[in-house]
Amino acid sequence: MTRAELSELGLENLIGTEALRAYMHGYFMDNKLYQRANMVAKPSMYEEYQKEKNRQKAKERKERRITLNRKKPEVNAELAAKLEESGGLADGRFSALFQNPDFEIDKNSEEFKRTHASGLGKRVESEEEDDAAAIQAMKEKQRKSTKRELPLEERLRAYSGAGWGR
């Protein structure tokens, strides 16, 4: 131990006694005495030691766990990902769909475009968004009607049809 370590533990008063023996640039000390002094100087050391030991055990347990590394299919990978999210990929009846290249979906084919003509992947607006858009359009139309930007017929229709005004 060095002089700095002795002062840290509060054992400087033992210098020159039989408990410390000078050796090169430091001192030798009985291990039991060192452990006791350490416990007195740092009472939370044991708790920290326990926490670290528990972290190591948990890490070892985690490393020993068996993990399943599922191989992602090469054929129809997008469809497999979509089905995996919904939990439908576990069904073994459709395994050939993801293994056999003959079943690969060609998104550039005319048949695919015809069957998915509605625009696969487009976001469908909810009824609430449609209502909000309709209300906004009516307000805009009414605003224009007050500024006399629209012909008289359309201004009257905006007031009467929307239920605004009188």
Gist of the model:
With 166 residues, this protein is mainly alpha-helical. The protein has helices at residues 3-9, 31-41, 45-64, 77-86, 96-99, 110-115, 127-146, 152-162, and strands at 20-23, 26-29.
Structural class: mainly alpha
* Secondary-structure element string: HEEHHHHHHH
Count the E strands.
2
Helix content class: 40-55%
Span of the ends, CA to CA:
95 Å
Mean residue pLDDT = 78
Strand order of the largest sheet: 1-2
Sheet with the most strands?
2 strands, antiparallel
| Helical run tally | 8
Rg (CA only): 39 Å
- Outline: elongated
What proportion of the residues form beta strands (DSSP E)? under 5%
Uncertain segments: 120-125
Task: Kindly describe this structure.
The structure is a single chain. The chain has 166 residues and is mostly helical. The chain has helices spanning 3-9, 31-41, 45-64, 77-86, 96-99, 110-115, 127-146, 152-162, and strands at 20-23, 26-29. The chain has a two-stranded antiparallel ribbon with strand order 1-2. Strand 1 and strand 2 (26-29) form a beta hairpin. Helix 7 (127-146) packs across helix 8. The model is unreliable at 120-125 (pLDDT under 50).
Any descriptors?
two-stranded antiparallel ribbon, 8 helices, single chain, 166 residues, mainly alpha
Would you spell out the secondary-structure blueprint of this structure?
Blueprint: H1 3-9, E1 20-23, E2 26-29, H2 31-41, H3 45-64, H4 77-86, H5 96-99, H6 110-115, H7 127-146, H8 152-162
Antiparallel strand pairs: 1-2
Helix pairs in contact: 7-8
